[in-house]
Amino acid sequence: MLRGQPSIAHLDADAFFASVEQHQKPSLKGRPVLVGGSGPRGVVAAASYEARAFGVRSAMSMALARRKCPQATVLVPRPAAYSAYSAAVMAALRERTELVEPLSIDEAFADLGHLSPGPDGWTRVAADLRARAVELSGVPVSVGMGRSKLVAKLASAAAKPAGVLVVAPDGEDRFLLPLPVRSLWGVGPVSAERLERIGVRTVEDLRTQPLDTLVALVGDAAGTNLYRVARGWDDRPVTVQRERKSAGAERTFDSDLYGRAQVAAQIPAVTAQAMARLSRRAAAARTVTVKVRFADFTTVSRSVTLSSPSSDSRVLTDAARRALDLVETDAPVRLLGVSFHGLSEHAQLALDIQLDDEPDAPQASHASEEPDVDEPAAPSRARRTHGSLREQDCAPGVDLEHPRYGRGWLVRVRDDGRVAVRFETAATGPGRQLNVEMDELQLVAPLGPDGAPAT
Amino acid sequence: MKFRVERDVLADAVTWTARTLPTRPPAPVLAGVRIEADASGVIGLSSFDYEVSARSEIPAEVAEPGTVLVSGRLLAEISRALPHKPVDVTLEGTKVVVTCGASRFTLLTMPVEDYPTLPQMPELTGTVGGDALTHAVAQVSVAASRDETLPLLTGVRMEIEGERITLLATDRYRLALRELTWTPTTPGFSAVALVKARTLTDVAKSLGSGGGLVNVGLSTGNGLDLIGFEAGGRHTTSQLVDGDYPPVRRLFPDTKPIHAVVPTQALIDAARRVALVAERNTPIRLSFTDGQVVLDAGQGDDAQASEALEAVLVGEDITVAFNPQFLLDGLTALGTDFVRLSFTHPNKPVEFTGQESLDGDDSDTYRYLLVPIRFAG
Fold this sequence. Notes:
The complex is a heterodimer of chains A (455) and B (377).
Chain A: E1 8-13, H1 16-24, E2 33-36, E3 44-47, H2 49-52, H3 62-68, E4 73-75, H4 79-94, E5 100-104, E6 107-111, H5 121-137, E7 141-146, H6 149-159, E8 164-166, H7 172-176, H8 189-197, H9 203-207, H10 211-218, H11 220-229, E9 246-257, H12 259-275, E10 284-294, E11 299-310, H13 313-325, E12 333-344, E13 347-348, E14 387-388, E15 399-402, E16 406-413, E17 419-423, E18 432-436, E19 442-443
Parallel strand pairs in A: 2-4, 7-8
Antiparallel strand pairs in A: 1-6, 1-7, 2-3, 5-6, 9-12, 10-11, 10-12, 14-19, 15-16, 15-19, 16-17, 17-18
Chain B: E1 2-5, H1 7-18, E2 32-38, E3 42-48, E4 52-59, E5 61-64, E6 66-71, H2 72-81, E7 87-92, E8 95-100, E9 103-110, E10 124-129, H3 130-141, E11 155-161, E12 164-170, E13 174-181, E14 183-184, E15 190-196, H4 197-208, E16 213-219, E17 226-231, E18 234-239, E19 258-263, H5 264-274, E20 284-289, E21 292-297, E22 305-310, E23 312-314, E24 318-322, H6 324-334, E25 338-343, E26 350-355, E27 363-370, E28 373-374
Antiparallel strand pairs in B: 1-5, 1-7, 2-3, 2-6, 3-4, 4-18, 6-9, 7-8, 8-9, 10-14, 10-16, 11-12, 11-15, 12-13, 13-27, 16-17, 17-18, 19-23, 19-25, 20-21, 20-24, 21-22, 25-26, 26-27
Helix pairs in contact in B: 1-2, 3-4, 5-6
């Protein structure tokens, strides 16, 4: 049954990581900012709207992004800060309802069906929600509302940046029909191309197609789904507990790896990183998938399934190694990923048996509840956030503190060995850049939107 | 080559010899069974896959001695299908003709000169009762890994110390240990060997089930490490698995502050029923309190089942969760009227031993150590 009111909200932060950086680094406001791996093989995890104007997109290689926008400031990701800002954004929804379904670190659905909108109607509700989220987090967000998740999500995309859009039931067709089919959930490049071949470009085109044609074109499930979404038929409820289906980590290497031994040597570290993404409610995994991306960007994935779910680092590392054995590794490798599926809160424990031919697997990292920052290949190597600054900690954007000048962020290491630091926070407004000695600087934890250190 | 043989004798021997033939032989000749007819009235049948060899000898009326190589699978199927009459086997040119009553089959031969030399059955190192071997191997091999990518753990470790053989196997989730006695040819003989669990199970079943004695030969340190088993005119050799088996005996707990005793069959039956609602990923829980154990599986919105049984508990109440199949494997392997479960902690391995009466002592000749599932919620 479709709802009668546009009471489903989709809240989506705009260029989230880049916006957080601009908020905490006021000198970057209004300027192009790229967040991602800064190494030679880095990938853009987020680009500010100023950078997007130059044609930069997320998931683009950092090298290409820099060519398109040489004046951009490139910063390394700071996951702790993003988690704190995410919590603030989500709090705006949670103040209004318990029915909040986070989709990722920067977007969520909420069911506001219990509200009775005043004379200004649902647009007022959406605008208030947006204003509150901005007030709590300090970063721009967009809000879309509709009578289904499908429409709400499309509406927030149309409202971007920093806007609201409410699509009333009687305005749904006017909104949906001109949209390109590519913007629909579940229409990837392959489906879009197949649809285009039969002349379907917009939702309006799609609606003229009979179910049989769609099923023949893209398969049973996808065809039925297309037929439904073309008509705005979506009665999925907002579900509070979105079960985590997978967790994983990927590493892009600064230079290509050659041969099985080199790739296999990276398995323990990437597996340990993936294990850190398992949470209490999904502490164990039954299936371990290894993804290998070659220098020519072809990608191969292989899986190994265990007899029962495990959270044992030896068992999981071993399974990852076996999955890698199923991949031909005769071409240079640029990326290795390990992901866990068939997650379970129960874990089959294992005997403490060390086999001679396997290298010592790293101990299980502490399982964290941190949201999955599964932006494309965001390097998630944990950075230190306390102690004296050392050369290997130096990356653009990391948080520093100086006994005299206070808090700031690392701009770059100068040729003379001194460090260029811009001393500013969200609270201070744009600050000045000074060159200071490395041994005068301490690493500090990022700040949350409230100015308190994020942990 | 020409001989006449009893149909049942031929069918049995060919079936046994051909049973280990590889489905995808590394070389075409290895799909064959070699038949050697000796003028003394003995037919030898052999198979080999470079790792495991099998040879059986049967009596026959040999008219003309000779040696041929034919498809083992086909010969086995034909000999099982023959009517109950004497079978004549004759080499005619490059073909082997099998006649039995009114049936007549012609098989192509393979080049016998290309067939590899079979390893010799190692010199006798001792004898063991067939039934005891079969039972012991079945109890231990249940815990061996079936994952070929971990070759060490697909093996059963045999530790021979004088008159005692200890068998050990683990797949990381459970560990089984079984002790049995045998008669070594040299008193104080001591050796260790790692044998593929699959091969050992097959050998123990096919050679031990006669109930007689099984001769064991072990040859290590001469380049090729080999174990051989021989009984009733048949022998099998197998290469040993290479590598250092991890030290696993230390994994059995030293102190067991809590233990429970339950009738084995009743626990098996209850576990089978409750396991019906346990999907592959979900555990079966056993909650022991004074006088009873409650089994349950399933939670939340899923199907649920529970069942209570009488049990003797010594020590504090304890709840553990297991993979249902691993639990049933161990209980079924015990073969005693009562099972003793010994605990240290809900997340630490539980030792299963057998005992003959509710209030008796447990026997430690067979121990099955099972690691629980850490149960959340």
